């Protein structure tokens, strides 16, 4: 029986811990390794440039393809989860990801880099991304949704950032191909965990969602995943909240994994820092984000999420404008890591909460997938654009100023939207 182990574990935990937290833990692990793989190009960019002799714009193009597909896969992954289940979709994604990461060790030409790190890993990581967390939280939680989403979101930044020093050390001692094989093996190890511990729905274990009193039958899904994804998008496009969240998430992607996740280590190398030290800076930001995003989830259950997002984007924009004018000393980089790290993807829990509150349990995961696609399109734009600007001007200054200004602008838009909404509510 596919749910024999979860049933036994749920009985053992009865009265002490709801199985929703076990499902969240298995999801956390899957998101962790997927995000670690997604973050690898940032630490591979300089070694690839040295080994292959390619320029940064060529490598950045392959990375941007992966980031774009990572985002565009999201809404279809959400629809597939509704059609074949969370468990099967996650297993399929992890197997694809492990095989595609392993295959990157065979690249010798730029088009092969685009195929492996671009297309295949983009599809694999896109199926195990924010939409997975949103779907699990939507099915398993009626209470503490913001907190649960904050924890799952934190896994994304933690995996993307905290493993980078280890990868940098592996690259230093084993070469980038050896480090990549280690990442593929780590991804494969998560497959049995998901297979054993992640049921599709609480009703599979005869349980209610966490915070509910009675089991809830899953809503039947009609139509194929492709039609469903576009049908839900059509409903979302008619709502101004969708446009507000999609545009803000585009800027979020520009200012996080597209720019900082991909180009912060090369920026630090340009200023004389060793790659391992630069990766350590990203790791520190990942640890800080674990606290910042979890706390953001707690806040999203209690305060106006539009105002929270306005604060997050505003502070992030100021930190990005500050960085290129710093002297890259330990003290000034630590100051940047503190403010930026706490804010790395603290935007996700309020965005998920606004999506769920506006569009409901059935449409919200798929629409969040489309909103997340906007995030990754923004990230792909920044990853490629920063590589091109670095080649043209021999500097990342322009890229950081553009991303910082965009964050400040979107903060002003969100603050205005929150103020107008508050004034429109009856006293």
Please explain how this structure is put together.
Keywords: Membrane, Transmembrane, Transmembrane helix. This is Putative MFS-type transporter YhjX. InterPro entries: MFS, MFS_dom, MFS_trans_sf, Proton-linked_MCT. GO terms for molecular function: transmembrane transporter activity. The chain has a single domain, classed as Up-down Bundle (Growth Hormone, Chain: A). The protein is built from 16 helices and no strands. Helix 2 packs antiparallel against helix 8 (164-197) and helix 11 runs antiparallel to helix 12. It has helices spanning 4-13, 20-52, 56-84, 86-103, 110-127, 130-140, 145-162, 164-197, 225-237, 240-258, 260-270, 275-300, 305-322, 330-342, 348-393, 397-424.
Descriptors:
single chain, 427 residues, mainly alpha, Growth Hormone, Chain: A, 16 helices
Return the CATH class: Mainly Alpha
Low-confidence stretches: none
Compute the average pLDDT: 82
CATH homologous superfamily?
A: MFS general substrate transporter like domains
Proportion in helices: over 70%
Protein name: Putative MFS-type transporter YhjX
Keywords: Membrane, Transmembrane, Transmembrane helix
InterPro entries: MFS, MFS_dom, MFS_trans_sf, Proton-linked_MCT
Domain Major facilitator superfamily (MFS) profile: 19-422
């Amino acid at each position: 029986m596919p749910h024999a182990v979860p049933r036994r574990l749920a009985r053992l935990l009865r009265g002490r811990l709801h199985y929703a937290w076990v499902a969240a833990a298995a999801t956390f692990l899957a998101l962790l390794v997927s995000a670690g793989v997604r973050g690898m190009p940032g630490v591979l960019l300089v070694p690839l440039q040295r080994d292959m002799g390619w320029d940064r714009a060529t490598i950045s193009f392959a990375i941007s393809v992966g980031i774009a597909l990572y985002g565009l896969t999201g809404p279809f992954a959400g629809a597939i989860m509704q059609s074949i289940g969370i468990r099967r979709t996650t297993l399929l994604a992890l197997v694809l990801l492990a095989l595609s990461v392993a295959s990157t060790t065979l690249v010798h030409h730029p088009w092969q880099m685009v195929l492996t790190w671009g297309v295949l890993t983009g599809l694999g990581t896109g199926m195990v991304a924010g939409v997975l967390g949103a779907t699990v939280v939507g099915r398993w939680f009626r209470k503490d949704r913001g907190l649960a989403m904050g924890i799952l979101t934190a896994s994304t930044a933690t995996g993307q950032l905290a493993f980078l020093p280890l990868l940098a050390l592996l690259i230093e001692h084993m070469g980038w191909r050896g480090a990549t094989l280690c990442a593929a093996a780590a991804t494969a190890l998560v497959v049995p965990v998901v297979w054993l511990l992640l049921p599709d729905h609480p009703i599979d274990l005869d349980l209610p969602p966490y915070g509910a009193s009675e089991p809830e039958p899953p809503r039947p899904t009609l139509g194929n995943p492709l039609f469903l994804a576009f049908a839900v998008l059509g409903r979302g496009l008619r709502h101004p909240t969708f446009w507000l969240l999609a545009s803000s998430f585009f800027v979020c992607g520009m200012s996080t994994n597209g720019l900082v996740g991909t180009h912060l280590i090369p920026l630090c190398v340009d200023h004389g820092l060793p790659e391992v030290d630069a990766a350590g800076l990203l790791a520190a930001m990942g640890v800080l984000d674990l606290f910042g995003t979890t706390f953001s989830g707690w806040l999203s259950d209690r305060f106006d999420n539009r105002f929270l997002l306005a604060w997050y984007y505003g502070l992030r924009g100021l930190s990005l404008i500050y960085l290129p004018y710093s002297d890259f000393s330990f003290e000034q980089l630590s100051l940047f890591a503190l403010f930026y790290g706490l804010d790395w993807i603290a935007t996700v829990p309020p965005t998920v909460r606004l999506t769920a509150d506006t569009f409901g349990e059935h449409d919200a995961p798929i629409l969040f997938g489309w909103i997340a696609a906007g995030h990754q399109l923004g990230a792909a734009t920044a990853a490629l654009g920063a590589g091109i600007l670095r080649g043209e001007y021999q500097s990342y200054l322009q890229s950081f100023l553009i991303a910082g200004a965009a964050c400040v602008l979107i903060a002003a838009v969100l603050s205005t939207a929150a103020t107008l909404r508050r004034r429109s509510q009856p006293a």
